[in-house]
């Protein structure tokens, strides 16, 4: 799993903003700049996986491309062989999705959806199977360094957030998915605190995953333990496009 792109950093729970609603509006503005950037979620127009054993030649891939196209390399583990699989990604700063993008709808800021939870590190490298949206039911094991325990609306949850290049990333689902929010679930970065046994979940900063902007991503989906029984009416909902342009999802 490569680092989730195009999502700006969040303030830490140890330094809460003086005006949380204003800080959220600033986060929203940074999100817009990020997803519309030259290598943002809306710019990804092709993910090209190479034959087994072949490594990317970036110079060759970039040859003949217009200046507004960026080419990068990526890798993953082949689900069948377990061997490294290499690929190329092509990002177009003038993609149709960027040209037609209007906004990402979001629920109004709600302080009631800023929740504190206990965090229980798990010794060793525990791996949890996450189904991915483009793996036809297959799963990829991701490192989950600890359990997040909290109570929401009287129900206890033990959530699995995986290590996304040093940051805990929660992939969660709720009854709004497919109705008012992106159908495959949403993402949320978990905020650490000075107390190693406590974390903060600000669901106002839940965001549409990269695969909600481009079908060239392969995003993890919420496992059973990360599905809430009540609607999480906080955070981003769906991307909105102009002129009848159809979103990827």
Structure, explained:
The protein has 249 residues and is mostly beta strands. It has helices at residues 20-35, 58-62, 96-100, and strands at residues 44-49, 69-77, 84-92, 101-106, 114-121, 127-131, 139-143, 146-152, 155-164, 167-172, 186-189, 191-192, 198-202, 236-241. The strands form four sheets. A seven-stranded antiparallel β-sheet has the order 11-10-9-8-5-13-12, with no helix packed on it. A hairpin with a 6-residue loop joins β2 (69-77) and β3. The longest helix is centred in the N-terminal third of the chain and has 16 residues, at 20-35. The mean pLDDT is 92.
What are the key terms here?
seven-stranded antiparallel beta sheet; 3 helices; mainly beta; single chain; three-stranded antiparallel beta sheet; 249 residues
SSE layout and pairings?
Layout: H1 20-35, E1 44-49, H2 58-62, E2 69-77, E3 84-92, H3 96-100, E4 101-106, E5 114-121, E6 127-131, E7 139-143, E8 146-152, E9 155-164, E10 167-172, E11 186-189, E12 191-192, E13 198-202, E14 236-241
Antiparallel strand pairs: 1-3, 2-3, 4-14, 5-8, 5-13, 6-7, 8-9, 9-10, 10-11, 12-13
In short:
InterPro entries: DUF1684. With 249 residues, the chain is mostly beta strands. It has helices at 20-35, 58-62, 96-100; strands at 44-49, 69-77, 84-92, 101-106, 114-121, 127-131, 139-143, 146-152, 155-164, 167-172, 186-189, 191-192, 198-202, 236-241.
């Amino acid at each position: 799993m490569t680092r989730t792109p195009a999502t700006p950093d969040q303030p830490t729970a140890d330094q809460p903003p003086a005006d949380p609603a204003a800080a959220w509006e600033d986060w929203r503005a940074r999100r817009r700049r990020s997803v519309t950037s030259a290598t943002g979620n809306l710019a990804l127009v092709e993910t090209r996986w190479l034959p087994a054993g072949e490594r990317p030649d970036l110079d060759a891939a970039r040859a003949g491309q217009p200046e507004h196209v960026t080419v990068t390399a990526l890798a993953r583990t082949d689900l069948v062989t377990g061997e490294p699989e290499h690929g190329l990604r092509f990002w177009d700063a003038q993609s149709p999705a960027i040209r037609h993008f209007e906004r990402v709808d979001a629920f109004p800021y709600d302080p009631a959806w800023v929740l504190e939870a206990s965090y229980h590190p798990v010794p060793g490298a525990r791996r949890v199977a996450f189904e991915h949206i483009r793996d036809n039911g297959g799963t990829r094991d991701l490192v989950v360094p600890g359990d997040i325990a909290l109570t929401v609306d009287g129900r206890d949850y033990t959530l699995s957030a995986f290590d996304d290049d040093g940051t805990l990333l929660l992939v969660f689902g709720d009854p709004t998915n497919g109705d008012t929010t992106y159908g495959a679930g949403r993402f949320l970065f978990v905020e650490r605190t000075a107390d190693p046994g406590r974390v903060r979940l600000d669901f106002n900063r839940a965001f549409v995953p990269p695969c909600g902007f481009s079908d060239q991503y392969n995003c993890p989906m919420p496992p059973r333990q990360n599905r809430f029984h009540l609607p999480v009416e906080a955070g981003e909902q769906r991307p909105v496009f102009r002129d009848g342009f159809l979103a990827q999802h």
